[in-house]
Design goal:
Helix content is 33%, strand content 23%. By secondary structure, it is α/β, with parallel strands linked by helices. The radius of gyration is 18 Å and the shape is globular.
Length: 320
């Protein structure tokens, strides 16, 4: 498949307002922080930029406010080469905003999100992007947008013969009819438990979570495990893919980088295990830098990592 593989991302944009704190505050408590910054964010936007940095042709379907933060998003897409033809700017709601606290050293984070204009993204918006969907190799969606828009993305992607990838974050109940249009479902452990109705603190092996999720309808499941890598489950087999060894600085964008790497590899025709191996690298590299978009790896960084550790280059990047 061509190196110019096409990915359509249906998802969110939000501005991330980040601060570092030694610990997260308890209810009613104020703690001192440092290093405040304003970043581009939103899982859909992050994943679109991540895919573009890995060399894919990317179209984004999203909804942003007609405000300075919305203009900030459009500038980002021009700079990163993301096609924003189907990004709708609306006056009714402000652009989404996320408040992020990060612990220095461990990189642990917690996030509160006001979706803003993201809540106005509809199935009709997805339908209007049919020209992009018709040529997509992969359609990738998340759940920071209304469920109807994510459902439409999976349905249109399946109808056009694309590989459909759903990153169910934040997790919410989904109808079996939706999951039956998903080729690859990519929750983390906490999201997998929520989707299955388990208590978040329940101790359940990733292999069991993945097998239970398969029964809900997706073709394949990849449960991300943070510093332990990921677990792949198909109807025929299951196996764990270990993480790469890195020093974590900020884990905020690891999942988005993982999904970007997975989507790009699949769009280039890689099998699922090969795609997850690349995704583990892109996710791992992302935690070595502060921020989300600044940490999303370029293809050159991925290739340098492969060379350093004697790993095979991705097939589509052999000429780089």
């Amino acid at each position: 498949m061509s190196r110019d593989a096409h990915i359509v991302v249906v998802g969110s944009f939000a501005v991330g307002l980040t601060m570092k704190t030694d610990r997260f505050p308890s209810a009613g408590e104020t703690v001192l922080g440092s290093g405040y910054r304003t970043d581009h964010g939103g899982k859909g936007s992050n994943q679109a930029v991540g895919c573009a940095r890995l060399g894919a042709k990317v179209s984004l379907v999203a909804c942003i406010g007609k405000d300075p933060f919305g203009d900030m998003a459009l500038r980002l897409y021009r700079e990163e080469g993301v096609d924003a033809t189907w990004v709708r700017q609306v006056p009714q709601r402000p652009t989404g905003v996320g408040f992020i606290l990060v612990k220095p050293g461990s990189g642990e984070n917690c996030i509160a999100l006001d979706p803003g204009a993201n809540d106005l993204l509809t199935a009709a918006d997805v339908a209007e992007s049919d020209a992009a969907l018709a040529s997509a190799d992969v359609v990738l969606a998340q759940l920071e947008i209304p469920a109807g828009a994510a459902e439409a993305a999976m349905a249109y992607g399946r109808a056009h013969g694309a590989i459909t990838v759903l990153n169910p974050a934040p997790a919410r109940p989904l109808l079996p009819a939706v999951l039956q249009n998903v080729d690859v479902l990519t929750p983390n452990e906490a999201e997998a438990k929520v989707l299955l109705g388990h208590r978040p603190e329940a101790e359940i092996e990733p292999s069991q979570l993945a097998c239970e999720l398969l029964q809900l309808g997706p073709r394949d499941v990849v449960v991300t495990l943070g510093e332990r890598g990921a677990f792949i489950a198909t109807r025929a087999w299951g196996r764990e893919v270990p993480a790469i060894k890195v020093s974590a600085v900020d884990t905020t964008g690891a999942g988005d980088a993982f999904n970007a790497g997975l989507a790009v590899a699949l769009a280039h025709g890689a099998d699922l295990e090969t795609a997850v191996n690349l995704a583990v690298i892109t996710g791992g590299l992302a935690v070595t830098k502060d921020g989300v978009v600044p940490a999303l790896p370029q293809l050159a960084e991925v290739l340098a990592h492969c060379k350093r550790y004697g790993l095979p280059k991705p097939e589509w990047a052999r000429s780089n």
